[in-house]
Structure formats: structure tokens, C-alpha cells
Write a structure and sequence with these properties.
alpha/beta; 15 strands
């Protein structure tokens, strides 16, 4: 079984009207390859702090973090990521960007933060991920494939594949850039179609024409590319901060089989079929 737990589902900033359904934290997810393999985190939005605290309470001391990109809503949780402050912890940060270590050192620095990055207590290591390639994280029986996504300053999409189940995480992608989508199509189709694809749906379809070049998509575009590549279930994340619970529920009702991610929700893949933790008696078959 392969699963994804949403620690933060918002893009850009926390909503002005706090959400009780979809969440208030910015992008971070926890990927679990199965019972015999440790989980890892994708992105350090504000939602990552809570997951780290829970993992520490369970006795975890080694943490792997994969970065999609370095925009503020995906890294702002670094200031409260507790393992960084503990000498008994090891934190490995993986990114396609060779300047990621320098970026974190510049961000977690005086006068923005009372402790400089180089003075944090944890053992911190940085690893460069090969772009548009596949690799394995140590200790996880999982192949990770990457693709470059069309987004200002770039973004990395991931496919997590255990040979039976495949999950694609592609936040911050402008699907209107049809000349740049070979990579994401490769992740979605793979050797077999992904059972679940998590996509950026920052804008509504009506807003797209006024936001060309902003690096984001709509649920309709996510639905269409998932349908074209045979994906089982499309799931929308990176919710706009100005869209409150009522607005997001209305979009989800309008979208039919496309679903919207909720903070703290877990989706699991068994037999490449995606099921949410609050729907285990009703598997989602992804009929578009």
C-alpha cells in the first residue's frame, strides 16, 4: 500500500477566513511507502511542522524531505520544523536545484531568524536529485521519478511507484503551457497509469484567462490531462487563500469525480485504486 497524508493544502498564504474543512496550512505532504518503510515529506510549507512533531513523538529521528521548489509557501515551515533544532536528528533535504543549501542558509539567517542555519543542532545533508530521471530513496521500496513542471523559476513533479501502485504529486504547474507537458504526461502514464494524481488547482476555470504565466492551473485542466493519460483519480490541492470552505465545496460539487484535498486527510492506494481515509467503504474509481 502507498499513501499520502495532506499536512498543508493551501497555496501562497493562509486564508483570510479560517477553514474547518480544507485547511489553513501551506503545502506539505507525507508519503508512506508501507508498513516496513519509513515515511518522508514533500515540501516544507507550514503544514510540515505538525507532522514532524508527531514523528518525533513516535521516536523517529531520521527525516527525508523532497522539495518541489523554493517559493515561500513551500519552505516557510522550515522555521518551525522541530527536527532541525535537535542534535539527535538527521535531516536530508533533496532537490533538483544545486543552490538549495545556499538558499536555506540565506533564509534561516540573521536578522530573519535568531539562529543561523549553519548553527542548527541537527545533522543536515543536501542531495541533488537528477532532473527528468528516476532514483530510489534509501530504505524505501519505492521508485521516485521526476519531471520539470512549467512554473516561474521551475518546479519538480514526482511519481512515487512501488511496482503495484503509483502516485503523482504535481503542485504548481501551468497546464495551459501545452508545449512543456511531456514530463508530466510521462509521470502520469508511466509504465502504467497512476492510480492517484494530486494537482494544482489554484485558479478556477474562469480566472485562468487573467492569469496566464502565473504558473497555476484549474481543476478542469487537471481533469482533462488525467483523463487523457488514464489516471484513476484526480485530486486538487494548493487551494487559493481567497477560496473559503463554501467556495471550495461548490467547486468540488461542480467537478463531479474530481476531488479536493483536505488537510489531515490520507489517501491510500491498494491495487492502484485510490481511497480516502474517510471513504474506505466507498472506493473511488475515477470515472470522469
Amino acid at each position: 500500500m502507498l499513501s499520502i497524508r495532506f499536512l498543508g493544502t493551501r497555496g501562497n498564504l493562509a486564508p483570510s477566513q479560517p477553514s474547518t474543512v480544507f485547511g489553513n496550512h501551506t503545502t506539505a505532504v507525507e508519503i508512506s511507502p508501507g508498513e516496513d518503510s519509513p515515511s518522508f515529506i514533500v515540501d516544507l510549507g507550514t503544514g510540515a511542522a505538525g507532522a514532524a512533531a508527531q514523528a518525533l513523538a513516535r521516536g523517529q529521528r531520521h527525516f527525508d524531505v523532497l522539495m518541489t521548489h523554493l517559493h515561500h509557501d513551500h519552505i516557510s515551515g522550515v522555521f518551525s520544523f522541530a527536527p532541525l533544532y535537535r542534535p539527535d536528528c538527521r535531516v536530508r533535504i533533496h532537490s533538483v536545484r544545486s543552490d538549495t543549501e545556499a538558499f536555506f542558509a540565506q533564509l534561516v539567517q540573521h536578522p530573519l531568524h535568531p539562529i543561523r542555519f549553519q548553527d542548527l543542532a541537527a545533522k543536515i545533508e543536501f542531495f541533488i536529485i537528477p532532473p527528468d530521471a528516476a532514483f530510489e530513496l534509501p530504505g524505501r521500496h519505492l521508485t521516485v521519478s521526476t519531471a520539470r513542471l512549467p512554473h516561474p523559476q521551475g518546479c519538480t513533479g514526482y511519481r512515487f511507484d512501488d511496482g503495484r501502485n503509483a502516485l503523482v504529486f504535481a503542485t504548481d504547474i501551468e497546464l495551459a503551457r501545452t508545449d512543456c507537458l511531456d514530463g508530466i504526461r510521462r509521470l502520469l502514464a508511466g509504465p502504467y497509469p497512476a492510480g492517484l494524481a494530486v494537482f494544482d488547482g489554484f485558479f478556477t476555470p474562469e480566472q485562468l484567462s487573467d492569469h496566464a504565466g502565473w504558473g497555476h492551473s484549474s481543476w478542469e485542466q487537471a481533469r482533462d490531462i488525467c483523463q487523457a493519460t488514464g489516471v484513476g483519480q484526480a485530486l486538487i490541492t494548493h487551494h487559493h487563500p481567497n477560496q473559503d470552505d463554501d467556495a471550495l465545496l461548490a467547486l468540488e460539487n461542480r467537478a463531479g469525480s474530481v476531488r479536493w484535498a483536505r488537510e489531515s486527510q490520507t489517501w491510500s492506494l491498494t491495487g492502484n485504486q485510490a481511497v480516502a481515509d474517510d471513504e474506505r467503504e466507498q472506493p473511488v474509481h475515477g470515472k470522469y
